[in-house]
Amino acid sequence: MQEAQFIGLLWTIGILAEAMTGALAAGRKQMDLFGVVIIGCATAIGGGTLRDILLGNYPLIWVENWHYLLAIALASLLTVVIAPVMRYLSKLFLAIDALGLAVFSIVGAQKSLMLGFSPVVAVVMGLVTGVFGGVIRDILCNQVPLIFQKELYAVISLLTAGLYILLLQYQVEEWLNLLVCLATGFSLRMLALKYHWSMPTFDYQSGTDNPMH
Amino acid sequence: MQEAQFIGLLWTIGILAEAMTGALAAGRKQMDLFGVVIIGCATAIGGGTLRDILLGNYPLIWVENWHYLLAIALASLLTVVIAPVMRYLSKLFLAIDALGLAVFSIVGAQKSLMLGFSPVVAVVMGLVTGVFGGVIRDILCNQVPLIFQKELYAVISLLTAGLYILLLQYQVEEWLNLLVCLATGFSLRMLALKYHWSMPTFDYQSGTDNPMH
Amino acid sequence: MQEAQFIGLLWTIGILAEAMTGALAAGRKQMDLFGVVIIGCATAIGGGTLRDILLGNYPLIWVENWHYLLAIALASLLTVVIAPVMRYLSKLFLAIDALGLAVFSIVGAQKSLMLGFSPVVAVVMGLVTGVFGGVIRDILCNQVPLIFQKELYAVISLLTAGLYILLLQYQVEEWLNLLVCLATGFSLRMLALKYHWSMPTFDYQSGTDNPMH
Fold it and tell me: DSSP string covering chain B, please?
C-alpha cells in the first residue's frame, strides 16, 4: 500500500465517522431524516469544502466524485438504525473521531502545500479541514460551536498539521511522518478526553454594549 | 414564449415571493428595515449563490445583473407595508412558495447540467438552489432550519430535480418535461401542507457527550 | 504618504480593532482561548473574505499574506489580557470601530471597482466588507446579528460606500474624497450611538406558519 492509499483509506473512515456524529447531533435536535442526512454531509465534508472555497480550489472533491456524497448519506441514515447500539460504542466513536481529527488536519495541510500555499496557510487549512465540519454542524443545529468551549480539539488539529509540515521540512520520510503525526494527534485527543484537558476560557461580562449614552 | 423565458418568468416570481417570506421571518424577530432587506435577499438568492460558490461558477447572477438585487430589496420593503394584508393571503403565498420550490429545483439542476456536471451533482444542486435560501434565512434568524423539522419540503426538491433529469435522459420534449415537473413538485408540496406529510424524525437523547471519564 | 498607504494604515487599525471586539464577544460566551482567536479572526476578516468569495476574487488577502492572520490572532489574545482595562476604553473602541466601519466600506467599494464591477455591486460589496464580519461573529456566537436590530450601522456603511463612488464619478480628488467619506461615516456612526438613531423595526407576529390545515 502506498502512503496516498493509506491516508485515503483513513480519510474515508474519518468522513464516515464524522457523518455519524453529525447524524447523532441531528437526532439530539429531533430532526427528520432529511435533516439527518444534511447535517451528516455538512459535518463530514463541510471542513474540506470550506477549505477549498477559501483557497479557490475547484472542482470540490464531492462535486467531482459524488460517490462520497452517497456513502456519507448512507452512513448518516445507517446511524438512525443503529443508534440504540451506538451508546455502547461511544468510546469506539470517540477514538475514530480522534483519528479523523488527525487525518483531516494532515490531509488539509498536504493539499494546501501541493497547491503551492505557504506553510502557515497550510497549517491554518489543516485546522479548517479538521474542525470546521463540526463548526458548521453546530451552526446548523443552532448551538454555540462545541470546539470553542470544550476539551482540547482545535489546538490538536493545529499541532498535528504543524508537526506534519515541520517534519516535511526536515525531510523525514513520508511514511514515518504520517505515522508520527497520526499517533501524536490521536494520543493527544484521547488524553484530552480522559483527563479533561482544556484551554483556559475567557469570561467577559460587560455591563453595557453602548457606553455612549 | 420560449421555455427559457417561461421558466425565467416563474423564477423571477419565485425569488420575489421568497424575498417576502424572508421579510416576514425578519419581522417575527423584530428586525429593523435593514435586517428585513438582508434577510429578504439572503432567502431569495442565498440558495443559488451557495450553488454557484460550490460549483465555482462566476460571476454570480446578482453580481452580473444587479437589477435582481434591487427588485428583491423592494419586494422585502413592500412586505413591511402590506404585512397586515398578508395574513389573508397566506394560502396564496404558500402556493407561490410551493411553485418557487419546484422552479428553483429545476433551474438548479438545469444550470449544473449546462456546466457539464453529472446528473447526481445536478440533483444535489437542484436541492441546494431550492432549499438553502431558507436554511440561510433561518441561520441568520438564529433558529434551527425549519426544513430539517417540518412538512416535506427538501425531499420534494430532490424528487422534482431528479424527475427533470430522468425525463431529460429519456428525451422527453422540454416543454412537457417542465410542465410535468412543475406540476409534480407543486402538487406534492401542497398535499404535504394539507395532509401534514412529513419525514420520520430521529430522536436521540444521549446521556453524555463524553463517556471517557 | 500616498492615499493607498494612508487607507492601508487605517484598514490595519480597523481589522485589529474588529479582532478585539470579536474577542470580547467570545468572552461574553465564555469561550476558550481558541474560540477567542477564531471569533477574532472571523470578525476582522470575515467581511472581506465573504466579499472576495462572492466576487470570485482569489487568492484571499490573508491567504496571500498570512502576517495579517498572525497579527489578528495576537490582537485577539491581547484582548484577554487587557480586558479589565477595556471597560474604561470602551468609548475609544467604539470610536475605532466607527472608523473601521467607514474604512472597510470604502475599501470594499474600491476593490470591487478595481475588479471592474458596477457601482451598485461596489456599494453592496462595501456593505459586505463593512458589516458581515460582525454578522459572522454573531452567527458563531449563536445570536441574532446585532446589526439587524440596533443603532444605525449597516445603513452608514451603504451611505459611506455610496458617497465614495458618487464623488469618484464627479472626479473629486482622491485624498479629498477619502477624507470626506471617512469623516461622514465616522460622524454618522458616533451620532447614531450618542442619540440612539435607529431604523424603524418590523414586528410581524403571525398566528401560524401553516394556514392550510
Answer: --HHHHHHHHHHHHHHHHHHHHHHHHHHTT-BHHHHHHHHHHHHHHHHHHHHHHHT--S-HHHH-THHHHHHHHHHHHHHHHHHHHGGGHHHHHHHHHHHHHHHHHHHHHHHHHTT--HHHHHHHHHHHHHHHHHHHHHHTTS--GGGTSBS-HHHHHHHHHHHHHHHHTT--HHHHHHHHHHHHHHHHHHHHHHT-BPPB-----S-S-TT-
- Compute the nearest-CA separation of A171 from chain B (Å): 35
- Summarize pLDDT for A80-125 with one digit per residue, the tens: 999 888 878 888 888 888 998 999 999 999 999 999 999 999 999 9
The residue ranges of every structural domain in chain A are: 3-195
Query: Is the Cβ pair A91, B147 closer than 8 Å?
Result: no
ipTM attached to this prediction: 0.91
CA-based nearest distance B190→chain A, Å: 19
Per-residue confidence (pLDDT) for residue B201, from 0 to 100: 87
A35 to B147: CB separation less than 8 angstroms, yes or no: yes
DSSP per residue, A125-168: HHHHHHHHHHHHHHHHTTS--GGGTSBS-HHHHHHHHHHHHHHH
What is the tens place of the pLDDT at every residue in C110-123?
Answer: 999 999 999 999 99
Contact C69 A199 (CB under 8 A): no
> Which residues of chain C lie closer than 8 angstroms to A145, CB-CB?
35, 140
A155, closest residue in chain C (CA to CA): C34
